[in-house]
Amino acid sequence: MEIRKFVFKRLIEIIVIFFVILTVLFLLFRLAPGDPVTRMVDPTMTPEDAAHLIAQLGLDQPIWLQYIYYLKNFFTGNFGISFHYGVAVFSIILNRLPNTILLFSTSILLSAFVGIFFGKIASWHKGKKTDTWMTLGALFCHTLFLPWLALIMIWIFGFNIGWFPLNGMISPEIWLDSSSGFWLKFLDVAHHMVLPLATLFLIHFGSYLLLMRSSMLDTLKEDYILTARAKGLEEKVIRNRHAAPNAALPVVTSVGISLAFSLSGGALTETVFSWPGIGRELVFAVSNSDYPLALASFLLIATVVLISNLAVDVLYAYLDPRIKY
Amino acid sequence: MTENRSIQISNDNKRSPKKFPTVERFLEGWSVYKENLIGKIGLTLLIIFAVMAIASFFTPLIDPMYHPMTGVDPDISHSTSPSWRHWLGTDFIGRDILCQLLAGARIAFMVGISAAFMSIFLGTIIGMIAGYTGKVVDTLLMRLADMIMVMPTLLVVLILSSLFGQLNIWTIVLLIALFRWPGVSRVIRAQTLSLKERPFIEAAKVTGASHFRIIFRHIMPNVLPLSLLYMTFRVTSAIIIEAALAFLGFGDPSTVSWGMMLQWVWKTGHMFQAPYWLLPPGICISLLTLSFYMLGRAMEEVLDPRLRKEIAQE
Amino acid sequence: MALLTVKNLSVGYHTRKGFLKSVQGVSFSLDQGKSLGLVGESGCGKTTIGMALMGLLPDNASVTDGMILFEDQDLLKMSKKEIRQVRWKKVAMIFQAAMNALNPVHRVSEQISEAILAHDADISEKAAMKQVESLFDLVGIPQDRMRDYPHHYSGGMKQRAIIAMALACHPSLIIADEPTTALDVIVQDQILSAIKDFQNKLKISVIFISHDIAVVADVCDNIGIMFAGQLVEYGRIEEVFDAPMHPYTKSLLASYLTLDKDVVQLNSYIGETFDLINSTTGCRFCERCSVAEATCSLVAPEWVEISPTHKALCYQCK
Asked: Measuring CA to CA, which of A188, B40, B90, B155 is 20 to 30 A from A316?
């Protein structure tokens, strides 16, 4: 199987990249000015607890052994104790991960689909009013400053009109009430998600629209589009069956490339909307010098980026029959 | 959609020989550029922001209270709405918002252009070396590029600032540059690969030119327009990263940037009370990035429409 | 009755530098089952004629004069919908395989059956697939390669697939635009004989468009030589080859030698491309012509009939 080989190759690459990131982070944490012990062990801990943690993290060992401990701890999910929360970092990030994935994947998928759809339409009306307005609108949305857009969203729709909650992910009164059913809880989360989702959507969909538009315009110049026309096919069929699948390929690649960018945006969105995800946890940890939490959140985000990259590669290989590695 | 099928006319040989090819090329490019609506809007906006940045040097000369950082209106100790004394109002300790806005333009230009310049410099050199040498060096450099490319720059800088403490503005600029070169180097590498096969490079080799000379005398002039184009896109990303960093509270505390202003309005709880304070910095960041982006897109059409695909992915 | 009659066709393109008159006053006709070759260098307007016949001229093109009568109907007066029904059903096209004429993301068989399904509302997908199978047999591609993607095919196979596609709806006219360019000589020969073969078997009229006079020599009944947007010589193939009248035809024929079917093409054309925007009234070839006289560049040349089936656009032929 060609595709299987291709994916396998990418998987190996991604694992190597991940190890390099792990190692670089390890070195940074050891080489940065200051004592690594104070960085990993909460200064307010009792001496016994601290000694136990130091032994567990291998901080009293020579540096190469520390590295072994570090890798072992990483794969067993032992990231130390959060200074702020006072509990194991792993349980915190495990708790936050689904929230991030929910917001992140919904926003990426939604903006990609809508962007591709409207990009297709814009390219079809090239040079006409529809196209001009769509392009300008997309350019405008694409360059909006994300945190500011988030604040404006809250200000308008949360504060002034009051349609949506100002922040958070759930309303405690609903979740604490044992009589609330699944759908009520679901709707509650959806209600909280509208504004952050809309923010991310507006920022991302413009770039997909522009990309799909220019990709479509290139594709429409291809010879096989002429063939399709010569065959007497309807314009709609030409656009949807012959041009769009080819034009979407570069867009899929770009989803992969822009994932890192999207996650930065995700962290900003989570922070402004107090959405309990990894990105917000990272910003919070960095602000409060909660090093174990910061390290773990960053590693987890890096993992998410790499896995999504792999997913995009698989999707690409599936869409483009020419892939043969 | 059909330009490719329309017939190309070749009457180039009828033109008189040019004395100043660079100037000619620029004028030719300019004549295409000024046809472009998006390009014109972008350039106009950019000029307005440049005027703002220049104006920021003069406000403290009018009255010390118009200094963006230290100038506090002696009569005001809280945020006030626009007035004759303060056209855009004041912030929570009585500093003039308009002055901060002007100073922000200066910082944004400074950060954007210097970070973009550095990343383009790095990206072009690395791309040319990778493309020209090929083999192991190429593989290693490109893997490194891949690796850096998948890292969210903003979050990396966040982690670094947590480890190394408060970063000053130049460190931030340097970090942005260090993490934003891979995209450029990929494109330059591809361009170098195709240039390498051209006869004039062969000819240079035959006449005994050194590798150094071939790279810098023969390849570089041909990839520079592409680098310049990329620079406009890098400026936007640098401005956005710096602003986001400042917004999260990790900016350089000795500078007033638009991101910083947004952080103040957000953290001091004025976002629902003071639209005159909330709106301007965000509009400025968005419009400045928009104008650089428009500039880039218009330049792209001048240089070569075929480049579109690679660049749009940024 | 002629299947196709082109009368005084003129087509131009709106370009940034002005209105480019790509085809001017071209007339010819073609009978059922016959073949015509249009020969000329690139930019002479031969492809534009092909595209005009298909109704596929780009947006910046406009037909300024003339008519295209196909089965007694003017193709130029048809609505977009009508012309779409003529395309492929009546007039099909063979594209150059070196072009990306096949869509890379669809299977070859799907692309052929698509044409059948588009023009026959009653046929089932299964029946269409059956037809595709027999088409593959006809052009000589093994049936087990049907479901491959285009990138799995060699150049020659792609060209065969394109021919199969052109035959899918049993058209009465096929326009073959540079059907063998960029194929190696042996494959070229195979493709040409395949086209000749089905043309005889199925009684299809074919218009060959080529820059290579040798290709046309092998397969056509009639030949039209084009220069700078005009037809300059037209006649039965023997007549034109045995007694070329127009100086351009003479130079074309002189620049290729036939060495027992293997073709060597010598490009000995001199001079620049003709300026189609600021064209003068005189003969367009006179700058490159060896027998031109002073009047040639001033007075428009007229058609000279050498025989009822052979004519040339040149004063010197008289």
From this structure: B155
